[in-house]
Fold:
Amino acid sequence: MNGDQNAFDSIQNLSGQLDIQFALVATGLGVWELNISTNQVLWDDRCRALFGLAQDHVIPYEQAVQFIHPDDVDRVNTAVQQALTGESNGNYDQTYRTIGADDGILRWVRFHGRAYFSQTGDPYRFGGVAQDVTQQVYTQQSLVASEARFKNLVAATPAATAVFVGRDMLIQQVNAPMLAIWGRDKSVLGKTLLVAMPELEQQPFLAQLQHVFDTGEPFRHSEGVAYLLTDGQPKTVYFNHAYNPLYDQDGFVYGVINTAIDVTEQVRARQALQDSEARFSNIIQQSPAATLVLRGNKFVIDQINTSMLAFFGRGEEVIGQPLLAVMPEQKEQFAWQQAQRVYYEGITFDEKEVLVTHKRTGVMQEYYYDVAYRPLLEGGHITGMIQVITDVTAHVQARRQLEESEAKLSLLSNTVPSMIFYLDQQQRYVSYNKTFQDWFDVDADEVIGQSVREFIGEQAYQQVAPHLAVAYAGQPERYELAAPSRVGTQRWLDITYTPHHNEVGELLGVIVLASDISTQMQVRRALEESSNSLQSAIEVAGLGTFSVDIASNLLTCSAPVAEWFGFDSLTADTETFIGGVGEAEQDYVRDHLQNTILAGPEARYNVTHSIINSKTGHRTLIHALGRVYFDANGKPLKVLGIAQDITAQRELQQVLENQVQQRTQELTLANQDLKRSNDNLQQFAYVASHDLQEPLRKILSFSNLLSLRLGDRLDSNITDYLDRINKSSERMSSLIKDLLEFSRIAVRQQEFGPVSVDAVVAGVLDTLSLEIEQRQAYIHIDDLPVVKGDAQQLSQLFQNLLSNALKFTPAGQAPQVRIEYFQRQLHELPPEVLPQRTAPYYHQFSVSDQGVGFDTKYLDRIFQVFQRLHTKSEFAGTGVGLAICQRVVENHGGGITANSELGQGATFCVYLPA
Structure:
């Protein structure tokens, strides 16, 4: 304002001129003006009242400022100066406190107006209106305080909290826990929720918030799932959250407060527990082993899988029932007792092959189970148990059968004459049979754990190592080996290695079968020699060979046969060869060959026919022999045979047949003469023996009469003569008796039948009992068998052998005689024994003494008639006894031999066919 203008017009005139009194009153406004020239304040009653003045409508500015709160004075002065200087474009608007000049009441007032400037820029008028804003300020202050408290509360609350304003959900406040859940920072303030967190666009949260905003209805949700992005990485969050509406002072919803508690760990823990329980239940259900979960001291069935239900023979209706209600038969059984210990004592129980008797199929039966019981702990207390059961009934039964089978197998392996043993992966002996023990002369466990190299030695191991390598590479191996045995002789073994694998093909060890094939080797060598000899014989004899392949009808022959036919090739069809046969004989040869093929295995091709050489026309007469060979099904495969050129033989045969006929007549006459001679000789032997006995008896009788008649008149010479006569007569009598017996054995018809050798020997001992008693002889006799033979001849055999054993023991020495028995195979007979009849087995009777013995160089003489190795003065005898023994043994198809050393006794061995 300046002095040229009416600055001091009265308020009443001003009000009247403007006619705004009503409006001012209605709005509660007062009018004021500052006289710039006088620096005085002019105001109306309402402005004056705002300063607490009872009077004075005009007061100096300095006085008016005194009624402003000291804390606001500087701010007011500064604002006035800024308005008057134009810094604020002349605008003035200040809210401040007055202290109540007269009434002492603190008021909040708002003075706002404008300064007007001249063209030169000088202020010429400054005024405006004033208003009591105490209530608004206090309300605003309360609101600010309330908002501050609310903001502090939001920031301080441990629960994640956010305040959204408006329907677009502008983020007004958010605390650290909520930012942590969101994975954001405070830069989200002032942004809408969707801008701050775009990943929520397809999720339900924004719609839920807007529903609360629109309806005012709170929203609660537990364990809600949110899919958020943190540093570009997705994460899943679970939280319990609530949306509550925020109301303004007019009762309108202006925003939503969101509180949330992160329960991700809780949810995940529960999910993990649920997953664990589900997996546990799934494991139980899918477990191949029967599994059962029991709860409480009543052992209530909580979980049970199908395998266990199958063992119970029941369905799922058993769940929730006590175990004894389902299987009362268990009560007194071992498994039930152990289950109680697991529950009440907290022990674990594991046992193999537990016997449980129960009704699985409605019938009480015995079953075997592998059992595992474990207590279930919850909060440190036992609340039940888990039982895992495997049915091994079939396994136990199979094992028992296997044990029985192994026992039988062991018995069988120990009765088999072959060595059977098992080597582990390191070539160590695990087991072996009785034959192995006998072969190597070892005990049952002596070799167990030793390696092959250790046991048989390096030199022998090098022989078998290459073959073992094949077996341990997984391939069967078979070979033959010459090896020493416990008896010190080298024997041939047929050895087979069979690899032993488990179900997945891993090598566990090697089964070894070693058979003594020494006899077979001898036979094989004999066959080889025989084959070689046969081939040589064929070549030397000029024989030819041929074979007919029945399927192809091809005949293959050797060179001699092809030469007879005049063929260049050794092979042609059968008809070509038959075409080379003499024309009149072709049908005969063809039919004979076909009939032989059809007749079966026993038929033989045996034909004589002529051959016409296709080149020279030479006629050759051959004799062909052959047989048919068949496959396993009885189908004929081929004919093999030999052929011989018998042209010369047939011509010679004609000559010989004439000579034979002549010689046969001569031989018939000679045989008749020989028979008469033998009959006469035998008759002579009988007659001579009897006739010779008669003079000997007379000589002995007269010699005894002379001794009796002469009595004391006999001098020493006559007595000696008479003794010599008697002894010579006795020897002559014994010789005649032996010759007579020898003759009887030669001509008597044997009466063979079962003979107990025990009984035969007993009879001989009875006959010799007086001599045995006088000599105080010891005689050991084995158990002797029953043989097929002539009892009388066998009695003579053993009596002669026992008599010799007693006789050839020096006087004054008690004879020690042993009669022993063995059974021998053919190959075990001594080479000098050539039995009259071949048999697989032989009875061996050995009669041994400890007498004077003999030199074995005389072995070929002692069985001859009249052969003696000692003088008559040393040992009496006729030299016929052992000849009788040999004749008896030969009559029985056997053989006899002896072995001895001078002064060491003798052993006579008799071999009779078994």
